Amino acid sequence: MRRNRLLGAGLAAILLLILIFTGCGKKGDPLPPQVLLPASIVDLSAASLPEEVLLRWSLRRGVERSRPDP
């Protein structure tokens, strides 16, 4: 009989703790996902040839993190 009471009290305590820790308030408003953009080009040059336009730029490694406008 006493064992059943202890078991019931233990289960009730565990259930209460689960309910408390799983519903602990609002963490914040949802945000849109971050967009990974390629690094910006800083040294673009163009040359006009007789039948085409030649564009040159150097590749930069890295990305810029940004959030889209709402």
How would you describe this protein?
Helices cover 30% and strands 23% of the residues. By secondary structure, the protein is an alpha+beta fold. The chain has one domain. A hairpin with a 4-residue loop joins β2 and β3. It is rod-shaped and about 100 Å long. 0% of the residues are buried.
User: In DSSP terms, counting alpha (H) and pi (I) runs of 4 or more, how many helices?
Assistant: 1
Query: How is the main sheet built?
Result: 2 strands, antiparallel
Residue windows where pLDDT falls under 50 for at least 5 positions: none
Total strand segments: 4
Shape, please?
Answer: rod-shaped
Helix content: 25-40%
Overall pLDDT, averaged?
80
How many structural domains does the protein architecture include? 1
Which H/E pattern describes the elements?
HEEEE
| Category by helix and strand content | alpha+beta
Strand line-up in the sheet with most strands? 1-4
The portion of residues forming beta strands comes to 15-25%
The radius of gyration is: 30 Å
Distance between the termini: 62 Å
